[in-house]
Amino acid sequence: LLTIISILSCEKNSIFDNDGFYGEGKARLDEVEWKGSTGIFKAKKYCFPDTCVAILVEGYNKARSVRSKILIDQVFLKTGKFYFNPIYPTYLDTLYNFSYQEFKGDAVLENYSIIEADSNNYVEIKELNMKTGDVRGSFQARVISNSGWPSNGSLPDTIDITNGSFYGKINWK
User: Fold this and answer.
1) Is residue 38 a contact partner of residue 55, using CB atoms and an 8 Å limit?
2) pLDDT tens digits, residue range 67-90?
């Protein structure tokens, strides 16, 4: 009986919210301030167990519905500055992948990704404590809409994401 009570009380006292998030992130999207909740989860591909993570920052509206999110995927658990890989032509599942999505209701309204390699597109892991799971870092990227070229011949929609930062704890579940 004591074991069951201990297990239940541990889960109740979890530092993570119901979605597994802990911490916050922020950035400037084309000079507009943006912020959200940070979730740092073990990455599913291309990594030996417990060697890399996915960093997810979700921005919410007042009703707590996700309006947009930034995903920095396949980040090795080590400090340093790492450059994002482009997704085209064949790099959809790659280390250091960055994407930004906007939502309307539950539907994805727009996907943005890095198209070309550029030294201005990076994530920097500034602090990493494997004992406590604390991770702190910064990022910036120029992303382009995945919907392709508009039919009117204008350039595709781009967003400059600057002054990005995040803090969170690794959720190994």
Assistant:
1) yes
2) 899 999 999 999 999 999 887 655
What are 168's two structure tokens? 């969170």
At residue 26, the 3 state secondary structure works out as: strand
Q: Which residues contact 22 (CB under 8 A, 6 or more apart)?
A: 15, 16, 38, 39, 40, 168, 169, 171
Cβ pair 113, 96 in contact under 8 A: no
Q: Name 135's bridge partners.
A: 128, 168
Burial 32-63 (b: 16+ CB within 10 A, else e): eebebbbbbbbbeeebeeeebbbbbbbbeeee
Helices (H), the chain: 2-12
